[in-house]
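QA checklist item 7 of 12: single-chain prediction sanity check.
[x] sequence parsed
[x] length recorded as 594
[x] structure emitted
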Amino acid sequence: MNRTPLRPLARVIDARKHGQNPDTIEAAERCKRDHATHQKLRKRAEARLTVLGLAFFFGFCLIGGKMAMLAVSEPVEPRLAAANTGIHSQRADIIDRNGITLATNLVTTSLYAQPHMMIEPKRAADALAKIFPDINHAKLTEQFTGKRKFVWVRKKVSPEQKQRVHEIGEPGLLFGPREMRLYPNGTFASHILGGASFGKEDVRAAELVGVAGVEKFFDARMRDPAQVDIPLQLSIDLTAQATMRRVVEGGMRIMQAKGAAAVLMDVHTGEVISMVSLPDFDPNNRPRPLLKGNPSDSPLFNRAAQGVYELGSTFKLFTVAASLDKGLVNENTMVDTQGPIKWGKFKIRDFHDYGKQLSVMDVIVKSSNIGTARLAQAAGTQVQKDLLGALGMLDPTPLELVEAKHIKPLLPKNWSELSTMTISYGHGIAATPLHLAAAYATLANGGLKVDPTLLKIDAKTAYGPRILSEATSKTLMGMLRNVVTRGTASFGEVKGYSVGGKTGSADKPKPSGGYYDDKVIATFASVFPTDDPKYVLVLTLDEPSIRAAGEMRRTAGWTAVPVAAELITRLAPILNMRPEVAGSGKVHYTQIQN
């Protein structure tokens, strides 16, 4: 760094030459140097003050912005989360399509004991046995008087029970905070929700994990801290679900059925509006799984999504759909119905003698096994397999239930020509009612594939690829309507609604092989309204029977159909469907907008 000297030699010599004092030169130079230093320090100070001012300005802006965000945000109730436990106890709520709570968390209390801190352990065990009658008194006394230092007494304690334990006055009885899963609607939608249980736990918190149903399928999403405050919205309508359960339960009792399953599905989106399996259970007090015997005997068994049944004549519509779509027949084509059809030692017969021939329309209306088998023979095995595969009848459904993920329809090992004929009328192949509902939804909506879902879809449609032509779909709906007006489902007529459907009555297989003579699986797959399809309803009854017209009846036309008709009568208003009867006698349908 170059610095100017305080006493420049040339100027000092010049000053002395003119008789001036050289010290004034030094003073002037020093003054100039001091001024330059002062200016430099001043600029540095100004820069520092500017930076400090900007820091304060941005700090106040940040605090002000945060305060503004807090002022306009919705208040949120703090959730229980024990610190430093390593256990995440929070879990997102589940709501129905209208925002009604189906599952939520409830802050509760656990009860545990530290026997080494007890004053009177035997008296404490006696008192607890009175508060909790189902407790093992002898075992608790042994634990309290033994060498154990920790004993779980109750994982969940009500406020009343907590107060009574307090009144025992035993210092060795302690309480811990935790959250429990609450299902406020009890048994409604129990197979859909599944249930939750405690995972990792200690005295300060407990982890809630899904054990079945959507609780397990979406377990990671439900426990994700980033989404715990965002409810999982299902496609289920709780009002429709409650109505369906009550009606199906009543119908099951009247028809003396062992079990029942029902699925209501939107034909355009695949949304499951309600799904019932009976007998069911309360997810607040989930029973233990069966360790032996038939799994279907357990109330935990979901007959709608897990029950694989031969669904009988409901499959006839698939056979006719394939023939129509391939242009092999039309609804007026006459089909040979003379029988029986002999194939080796097997014979295919009709329930009644329908004469020499029936139109394709009447093959469905009268439910002719022989006529359907003839159509399947003419179309061929590959056409049948292709259509059933495209409709999803050969693979597990993609429904968001862990129970449904691995349930694959039962198919013949060797898909022979005989298999093609028997499958055409629903024998030799077994699927779930959920499979059937999704397939009928595709047939009803114009032939576009839909997949069943338990999640609410905002769009009005969720179509996949085209499976059948629109003309074929319309013809099929006309056939289903005729089944109700003049066929096997005459009890399915609902005044004011154009209901169509197909009955199916299949002999129930024995566990040891063969079929029972007096036990059937009765199914009615219905669409309403048929002139503008909106919903599919599939109802299946396990071993129904009712005495009517002087004899015992087991077929779907006498058992499943009347129950389905009552269901549609109750559900249509809930689904905002209002019939309007015009003066011409035709019925028009409007859907009320929410």
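[x] summary fact logged: The two ends are 84 Å apart (CA to CA).
[ ] second reviewer sign-off
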